[in-house]
Prior knowledge:
Elements: H1 6-46, H2 53-95
Helix pairs in contact: 1-2
Amino acid sequence: LTAMPDVLSKTSEVSLFIAFVTTLLNLLYLEPKSTRVMFDRYSLEDDGKRETEEYSKLAKNFGKLHGISSLTNLVSLCGGVVHGVRLASGLAGGLAV
């Protein structure tokens, strides 16, 4: 097998690093905070306070956190796909010899 060209390995490393960082960001910060806001919102719904200012603020905050969380998941997925494509192209190029 031949060595993977440097450009391919650097792109693969960077994309895998980005996927890792965004996954950690989502796992350790965004998801717990979003879940906490969601349960606070549900608590207000159960108490019949759906039309209050506090509920509106929590709903807006939840929407923002949920959107950012979805975006980090998408970035992570794209990083993993780029890494996989680069890895596969390096393997396919090495096997063609």
